[in-house]
Design a protein that fits this description.
Blueprint (H helix, E strand, L loop, with lengths): L5 H4 L5 H24 L10 E5 L2 H15 L6 E3 L1 H7 L10 E5 L1
Antiparallel strand pairs: 1-3, 2-3
C-alpha cells in the first residue's frame, strides 16, 4: 500500500524527478497486469492529492513549487475555497490560506 505522488515529492528537475513521474505513469498498467495474472482484485484509486497551505508564506511556497513542477510535467490546480470544500468535505476552507490539487 502507498502513494505515488510526485507532486508531494518532487521539487527540482533531475533523475529522481523523472523516476517518480515515470513510476506514476507506469503504475496503472502494472496493477492491471497483476490483476490479470493473479485473478485477484486490486483497489487502485486515481484520486489525486490535496496539499493545504497553513498561512500566506506556506501558500507562496506551494505556488512556487507548483510553477517549478509544471515545467516537469506535474500538473496541479490552485483550489478556490468552494472547490476545496467540494473536494474535501471534512476540511473547513476558512482554516487554510489556500490549497492545491494534484490530480
Amino acid at each position: 500500500a502507498g502513494m505515488l505522488a510526485p507532486g508531494g515529492e518532487v521539487e527540482i528537475p533531475g533523475s529522481h524527478a523523472q523516476f517518480c513521474i515515470r513510476g506514476r505513469e507506469l503504475y496503472p498498467k502494472y496493477v492491471e497486469e497483476l490483476v490479470e495474472r493473479s485473478g485477484l482484485p486490486i483497489d487502485l484509486r486515481l484520486c489525486g492529492a490535496v496539499e493545504l497551505a497553513a498561512d500566506e508564506d506556506d501558500l507562496a511556497r506551494l505556488e512556487a513549487r507548483a510553477s517549478a513542477q509544471a515545467k516537469l510535467g506535474i500538473s496541479s490546480i490552485a483550489l478556490s475555497r468552494d472547490e476545496l470544500s467540494s473536494l474535501t468535505p471534512g476540511v473547513d476552507p476558512d482554516d487554510w490560506a489556500g490549497a492545491f490539487h494534484y490530480p
